[in-house]
């Protein structure tokens, strides 16, 4: 399945905040970075922790368990102990609706 799915309204996620959502059994974090929205996997690649419980530091999200940091735009690891990047997903905004495209 390859389709755009509604995940949030733009008004419910403030800049510098994120929202955890589950789509097709996949846990995502929808992040508002200065008015731009991004979608990343919400589970850390190092262990089992929800990144939405961590902190957003500039354009990075920090894991609440061991402190790994990931680039919110690209999913790349910015700080260990994680070494595998996060999956990222295409996002678009229509009006005040945030949509994410899920791919097989
Ligand atoms: S579980 Fe995220 S850094 Fe270890």
Could you outline the blueprint of secondary structure elements for this entry?
Blueprint: E1 3-9, E2 18-23, E3 26-33, E4 36-41, E5 55-57, E6 60-62, E7 69-71, E8 77-79, E9 88-89, E10 91-94, E11 97-102
Antiparallel strand pairs: 1-11, 2-3, 3-4, 4-9, 5-6, 6-7, 7-8, 10-11
What would you say about this model in short?
The protein has 104 residues and is an all-beta fold. The protein has no helices and 11 strands.
Report on this structure.
With 104 residues, the chain is mainly β. It has one domain (3-102): Rieske [2Fe-2S] iron-sulphur domain (Rieske Iron-sulfur Protein), CATH 2.102.10.10. The protein is 0% helix and 49% strand. The protein contains no helices and 11 strands. The strands form 3 sheets. The chain has a 4-stranded antiparallel β-sheet, with no helix packed on it. Strands 5-6-7-8 form a 4-stranded antiparallel β-sheet, with no helix packed on it. Residues 44, 46-47, 49, 63, 65-66, 68, 81-82 line the site of FE2/S2 (inorganic) cluster. FE2/S2 (inorganic) cluster (FES) binds next to loops.
């Amino acid at each position: 399945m390859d389709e755009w799915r509604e995940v949030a309204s733009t008004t419910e996620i403030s800049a510098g905040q994120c929202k955890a959502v589950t789509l097709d059994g996949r846990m995502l974090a929808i992040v508002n970075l200065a008015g731009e929205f991004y979608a990343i996997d919400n589970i850390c690649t190092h262990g089992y922790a929800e990144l939405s419980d961590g902190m957003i530091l500039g354009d990075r999200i920090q894991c609440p368990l061991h402190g790994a940091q990931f680039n919110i735009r690209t999913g790349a690891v910015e700080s260990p102990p994680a070494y595998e990047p996060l999956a990222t997903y295409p996002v678009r905004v229509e009006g005040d609706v945030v949509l994410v495209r899920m791919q097989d």
